[in-house]
Amino acid sequence: MPRSLDVEKLSESLASLGLSQSDLAKQVGVSRNAVSKWMKGEALPRPDKLLKVALAAGLSYDDIIRTTNEREPVVAFRKRGARKTRSEHVQRAKDMGRLLERLVPFVPFDDLRQHPTLKSPVPEYNYLQRVARDVRKQVGVAQNEPVEFHSLVQRFDEFSVVLVPVMWGRREAHENALHIRLPESDTTWIYLNLDTHSHDFKFWISHELGHVISPTLSDDEAEDFADRFACALLFPRECAEEAYGELRRFSNPRSILGRLTGLAEQFGISPITVLEGVEEYVRASGSEPLSFERKLVYPAATNFNKQHYTVREALFNGDDPAAASYIERSESVFSTPFFDALRKYLRESQADASFVHAVLNCPLVDARAIASELG
Amino acid sequence: MAQRKVLLDSNSYFRLARSIHPLLHVEFGEDRCCLYVIKELRQEFDRSSRLQDKFHWVVEDEYVENRRRSISIPRKAAREIGITLSVIQGHAREEGLGVSIVDACALSTASVLEIEIVTDDADMLALARDFDIRAMKTLEIMRVMLECDHVTMAKIIATAGYWRWENDLPKDYEGDFRRLFQQEPP
């Protein structure tokens, strides 16, 4: 990718340290002429010299080098709660994206056909209901039935999206899901944290599907669309309308909470999703809002989650899986070509557990076990 | 004579630690060669495993104890390691070289402290070349150990045999083994 020395920043830093170009040449061990060429933008220092320049000037790589790469991975986080996204999270995710590029030749993407996506997606209630109805029809689930996440998985495969099931922990993980788009290969990879409660997991997988079918949207508009699509898919208008009819008969917040969690149980979704479904319906239909303080639903949802398994616990009967079992279940439940691609890449490149560690962001010990299993 | 400090990357530690124990903080040879890992590697091993403990020995007390003391970093060097890490990672991105943050940290530490690093990873070796960092492979440090009778040839054969059993042979293993030990690899 095109890159150049940030001469202005380097000059400023050298000046503040009282270093001339001759001083820099001495410290780096090159001629003054070489430094002069760098400062005129006529040449870039070799890696070992660039390091010496950075150390002399006290500047990091990002300070001293300007890069213009429009083809770098595009990442989006589905964060846990109110976790803050820091620059190291973004950098780590982009680095993972760069490693994923190496697996692209080993994934059987359909390069002949492209699955149709939405023409002009808009985050508008009636439109979202139509889209959700269409998706339910495609996966064979009636409007008043719960959607199981297994039935959504196949849809990702049709869009040439690779799902990567990971186990990033329940509390320590920064994100529940990580979406990486690789412009270079025009592929999408979605990491899904299995250490997520099954109801939240279903919401996130639906949210990701929302992104996949609306690739023309970006930033906040895309997030809004995906959130509202997930809600429409998991608790559509028919269900929301019926729930509203029941809920408005209650005046006691505890009764409302009880019914919300009952519906959440029935549909295998969070009470928050049920409430959001009802609120969306109320806004769209112009009905009278429920007399219920929204903030009450959050502790109820936390308690609700505590009574249920995480996806990992459900998939592996509550045990820590062996590497072989983790790979086998990931492939069978999520139809993912990821591990097969990783297996082929490891064999062909002779890359080792370090690659697995970096591309899965998993503990080193687990990376060894996975590499050993795939080797 | 000052100690000859040598850093191990994550894979080299794994390949050696189980068979040659204690591996770290033990001097060998006339030049007082001594193996170390960086703090970040120790912390990485402390991350709780999500899978069944196939490599359970890593968390056994004697190995944890041996890793407890990592290489010491003077304050001035810590700042330089931070800058070096950013440059190595930036360069790796440009060149499409994939190394984990822990191993990039190990390379940066070796660069700033001007010590050798042991790695078998092709990308790590390429980065070491680009940044003029002295590097050797796991089999090469075993050769150093053999020359000063820190390990026996039988131990080397057993260790390498275990790698094969674990499906964990380093790149160019067979050629390197013949070159370094003048015999057929196990």
Strand content of chain B: 5-15%
CATH architecture designation of the largest domain in chain B: 3-Layer(aba) Sandwich
Low-confidence stretches of chain A: none
Which segments of chain B are poorly predicted (pLDDT under 50) over 5 or more consecutive residues?
none
Neighbour order of strands in the largest sheet of chain B: 2-1-3-4
Rg over CA atoms of chain B: 16 Å
How would a crystallographer describe the biggest sheet of chain A? 4 strands, mixed
Q: What CATH first level of the largest domain in chain B would be assigned?
A: Alpha Beta
SS-based structural class of chain A? alpha+beta
Number of strands of chain B: 4
Please give the oligomerization state of what you see: heterodimer
* CATH topological fold name of the largest domain in chain B: Rossmann fold
Q: Beta-strand percentage of chain A?
A: 5-15%
Give the number of DSSP strands of chain A.
Answer: 6
Figure out the total of helices of chain A: 19
Explain the overall architecture.
- The complex is a heterodimer of chains A (375) and B (186).
- Chain A is of the alpha+beta class.
- Chain A has helices at residues 7-16, 21-28, 32-39, 47-57, 61-64, 87-100, 125-138, 149-158, 198-213, 219-234, 237-247, 253-267, 271-285, 297-306, 311-315, 323-334, 338-349, 353-360, 364-374; strands at 3-5, 65-67, 74-79, 161-166, 175-182, 187-193.
- In chain A, β5 and β6 (187-193) form a beta hairpin.
- In chain A, α2 (21-28) crosses α3 and α18 (353-360) packs across α19 (364-374).
- The two termini of chain A are 32 Å apart.
- The model of chain A has no long low-confidence stretch (mean pLDDT 90).
- Chain B has 186 residues and is of the alpha/beta class.
- In chain B, α4 (75-95) packs across α5.
- At the A-B interface, α4, α6, α18 and α19 of A face α1, α2, α4, α5 and α6 of B.
